[in-house]
Amino acid sequence: TKRIFSGIKPTGHLTLGNYLGAVRQWVTAEYEPECALFCVVDLHALTVEHEPARVRRLSRQAATLLLAAGLDPARCTLFVQSHVDEHTRLAYLLECTATDGELRRMIQYKEKAARAQVSGEGVRLSLLTYPVLMAADILAYEAQEVPVGEDQQQHVELTRDIAVRFNQRYGHTFTVPRATLPAVAARVMDLQDPTSKMGKSHDSGAGIVYLLDEPGVVRKKVMRAVTDSGDGGVLYDRRTRPGVANLLDILAACTGGDPAALADGYSGYGALKRDVADAVVELLRPVQERHAELAGDPAQVEKVLREGAGRARELARPVVDRAYRAIGLLEP
Ligand code: AQP
Fold this sequence. Notes:
- Its EC number is 6.1.1.2.
- It is an enzyme of class 6 (ligase).
- Homodimer.
- It is found in: Cytoplasm.
- The structure is a single chain.
- This protein has two domains: about 5-180 and about 295-325, Rossmann fold (3-Layer(aba) Sandwich); about 205-290, Tyrosyl-Transfer RNA Synthetase, CATH 1.10.240.
- Helix content is about 55%, strand content about 5%.
- The protein is built from twelve helices and five strands.
- It has a three-stranded parallel beta sheet with strand order 1-2-3. The chain has a two-stranded parallel sheet with strand order 4-5.
- The protein is globular.
- The model has no long low-confidence stretch (mean pLDDT about 95).
- Adenosine-5'-tetraphosphate binds near residues 18, 20, 149, 152 and 201.
C-alpha cells in the first residue's frame, strides 16, 4: 500500500480552502495507520510573527478539527511535528542539499517575505528555509503521495528535487514523492478578493469561510461575495470571471458536480450564491457537530497525538539515521 503524508500549519483557524483543497482528500481514503500520516506542523507556524499562546491553542484546535473532519486514529497517524525530533534532524541535512537560489524562488516565500517587510517585522530566516523543513517532514516517512492544495505544489516539487539530488550524490536513501491535488477546488479564492487565495492568516475576515463559522455567518459571507461585472449570465471562466468561477468551484466541490456544467443551471448570481451557501452550511454541519463533542474531551485528543507521535518517531528514525550515514556522518 501507498504511504501518504500531509500537514496543516496552525497559523490561523482552518478555512474552507484548507478543507476542500487538502483535508477532505485525507479523510476519504481507506488507510492503515502506518500508511497515512497527518501532521499539525507547528514549527512552520513560527516562520512568521506569532504569539506563543495562540500557536498552542491553534495547534490543539487543528488536531481536534482534523478528527472532527473524519480522520480516524485507528486508521491513520495524527501527530504534532514538534513532538518528533526527526523532522529537524533531517532538515539540516537537506539544507546541505538545497541551494539558496532554489529557496528564494519559492512563490510563498516571496509573498510572505514581502508581507513581513511591509509590517516592519523583518523576514525570519526560517521563512526562507521552511520548504526544506517541509521536505524533511515528507521524506522522513518515505511518503509516495502528498495530498495538498495547489499553493503547496511548488514546495512538493522542491522536495522531489532535493530527494533526487540526495539520492544521486549519496546513494538511494529517499522515496521521491509526488503531490496529489483535488480535481476541483485545489485553490479556493478569497470571497472578497477572488484573485487571491483564501488564506487562514490573511486578515480579510469577510472573504474567508472558517470551518467553525456558524451557518448565519457562512451565509452572510457567501451572499456578500464579490462577483464579476459583465453580462452574459453565469459563466465559468476563472480568468475573466474569477469571483463567479470560485463560487462554482466551491459548489462543485460540495455537491460533486462539474463547475462549468453547473453554471448552465443559473441565470443570476443571487440563486447561485444561495445554493453555495446552503451547500457549504451542509458540508460543515457534521464537522462542527463532531468538533463540539471532541472539544469537550481534550484528554482524548491528547492521547491520539501522543500515540501518533510515538508511531511517527518509530517510522522516521531509521530513515533519518540512514540519511546521516549516507551523507558522511560517523555512527555514534
Ligand atoms: N485556498 C486554498 N484552496 C485550496 N487548498 C488550500 N490550502 C490552503 N489554502 C487553500 C491547502 O491546505 C493545506 C494546509 O495548508 P497549510 O496549513 O500548509 O497552509 P498554507 O498552504 O500556507 O495555506 P493557508 O491556510 O493560507 O495558511 P497561511 O495563510 O498561513 O499561509 C495545504 O495542503 C494547502 O495547499
